[in-house]
């Protein structure tokens, strides 16, 4: 007779396969779905979520866990599987099936409402829908919190084990160093952005070449365009999107590198874990550590940008940047801007901290949706020193709240902190890294990340997998040290 563990794994494999199909529906919605299909897709997503919720809260899971827990005989893989299943099951049984399906339906439709409001710069057109999304997510958070902090309960979907208080302490320690460096760099002579137009087809061709240089396996992936770049899938079907701007080729290139970091993580996870709870990235903070170290510490390094400068000239000819040193400063220029995903490396975390504080206040009830746009604009001007000019450059720029991702934003800055720690260890272990990067050879760096972190998938807890890879504890000092050294060396005259 099949034992309880085999039955549990069979059940989890089928559930995971269905979840992958649901993820493909989301990918299609962002890339190819006709606009008129939005309401129908909402019903389809609700139906898929109803099936998934029923499977995840199946009473048999509780029975299998009761039989299996505590008797793993030192098998770390089996113990990790049970840990993930227990966490998911306990959360699923707390959320009513009706609520899970309604969240899926409303957020699917809300995404289209947000996109239209963003295109028209009309926050008022989106506000009623956002109120409904927030209402549903508060209800979900209250069910999950079981009397505890609702926002902390929502964070667990993205960063298990984290809390708003812990994240606030970390970000509070990070902010002063960032503000000091930003002030210094604003006094430095920043190079101008490249002039002229860069054909879309050429941008996409170069982005594919760069993606492959970073190890993205195109036989198990693809690159498409979307309003908001993202990565989707795991295992042997991991897709990414990017976007193009005729006057800003770096938007396309670095969006691609960022999403390749996410996708490469998923592609590198051990095939033994496919369709199991270990077969995907362990948290969004760890995920973001991969996208950010690919994009910034590797992709914006002096060594790699020297190689990329040559590829840019091959692709676009003379594009107005004279040499590799100037190109390096252009890629890393500290510039005023409204958009988080287009922000320079120094100011990026200020964008994230703004969102973290605002969404936390919305979930706790300290900030209403009706007051959100004004609160955003006031906070932005206080942090960045200039005013938001229109909603698409402010409160409407990100897709996250429209799809109910409350608790997700802080993982971006947490991922930056993790990336700082990983980069410090990477440099320690690969003293010839810059020589390799200068040749466009990312294999040593990505191989180190694959071996020390990516292949493990969900085997370890989020902070544990970072600490194992780095060989020490996590804090923000590695990131701030890296940023200070990089930017002060770039402008030694200030």
Automatic annotation (TrEMBL):
InterPro entries: Peptidase_M32_Taq. It catalyses: Release of a C-terminal amino acid with broad specificity, except for -Pro. Zn(2+) binds at residues 258, 262, 288. The keyword Zinc applies. One of its GO terms (biological process) is proteolysis. The active site is at residue 259. Binds 1 zinc ion per subunit. One of its GO terms (molecular function) is metal ion binding. Its cofactor is Zn(2+). SUPFAM superfamilies: Metalloproteases ('zincins'), catalytic domain. Its EC number is 3.4.17.19. Pfam families: Peptidase_M32 (PF02074). Keywords: Carboxypeptidase, Hydrolase, Metal-binding, Metalloprotease, Protease, Zinc. CDD domains: M32_Taq. PROSITE patterns: PEPTIDASE_M32. It comes from the Bacteria. Broad specificity carboxypetidase that releases amino acids sequentially from the C-terminus, including neutral, aromatic, polar and basic residues. Belongs to the peptidase M32 family. This is Metal-dependent carboxypeptidase. It comes from Roseivivax isoporae LMG 25204.
């Amino acid at each position: 007779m099949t034992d309880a563990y085999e039955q549990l794994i069979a059940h989890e494999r089928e559930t995971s396969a269905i979840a992958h199909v649901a993820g493909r529906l989301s990918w299609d919605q962002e890339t190819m779905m006709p606009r008129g299909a939005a309401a129908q897709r909402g019903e389809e997503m609700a139906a898929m979520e109803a099936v998934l919720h029923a499977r995840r809260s199946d009473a048999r899971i509780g029975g299998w866990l009761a039989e299996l827990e505590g008797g793993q005989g030192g098998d770390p893989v089996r113990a990790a599987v049970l840990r993930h299943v227990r966490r998911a099951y306990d959360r699923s049984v707390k959320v009513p099936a009706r609520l899970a399906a309604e969240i899926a339906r409303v957020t699917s439709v809300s995404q289209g409402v947000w996109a239209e409001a963003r295109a028209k710069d009309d926050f008022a057109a989106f506000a009623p829908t956002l109120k409904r999304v927030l209402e549903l997510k508060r209800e979900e958070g209250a069910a999950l919190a079981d009397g505890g902090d609702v926002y902390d309960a929502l964070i667990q979907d993205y960063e298990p084990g984290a809390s708003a208080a812990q994240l606030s302490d970390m970000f509070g320690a990070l902010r002063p160093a960032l503000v000091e460096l930003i002030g210094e760099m604003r006094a430095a002579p920043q190079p101008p952005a490249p002039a002229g137009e860069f054909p879309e087809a050429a941008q996409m061709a170069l982005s594919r070449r760069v993606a492959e240089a970073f190890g993205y396996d195109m036989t198990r992936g693809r690159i498409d365009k979307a309003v908001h770049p993202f990565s989707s899938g795991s295992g042997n079907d991991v897709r990414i999107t990017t976007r193009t701007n005729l006057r800003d080729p770096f938007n396309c290139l670095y969006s691609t590198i960022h999403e390749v970091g996410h996708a490469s993580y998923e592609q590198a996870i051990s095939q033994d874990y496919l369709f199991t709870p270990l077969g995907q990235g362990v948290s969004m903070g760890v995920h973001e550590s991969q996208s950010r170290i690919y994009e910034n510490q590797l992709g914006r390094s002096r060594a790699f940008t020297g190689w990329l400068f040559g590829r840019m000239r091959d692709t676009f000819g003379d594009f107005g940047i004279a040499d590799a040193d100037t190109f390096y400063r252009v890629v890393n220029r500290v510039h005023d801007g409204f958009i988080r995903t287009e922000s320079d490396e120094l100011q990026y975390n200020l964008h994230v901290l703004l969102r973290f504080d605002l969404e936390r206040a919305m979930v706790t009830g300290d900030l209403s949706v009706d007051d959100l746009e004004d609160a955003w604009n006031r906070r932005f001007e206080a942090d960045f020193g200039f005013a938001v000019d229109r909603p698409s450059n402010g409160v409407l720029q990100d897709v996250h709240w429209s799809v109910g991702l409350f608790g997700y934003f802080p993982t971006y800055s947490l991922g930056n902190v993790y990336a700082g720690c990983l980069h410090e260890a990477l440099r320690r272990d690969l003293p010839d890294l810059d020589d390799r990067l200068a040749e466009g050879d990312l294999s040593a760096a990505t191989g180190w990340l694959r071996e020390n972190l990516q292949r493990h998938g969900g085997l370890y807890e989020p902070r544990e997998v970072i600490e194992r890879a780095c060989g020490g504890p996590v804090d923000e000092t590695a990131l701030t040290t890296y940023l200070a050294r990089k930017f002060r060396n770039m402008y030694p005259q200030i």
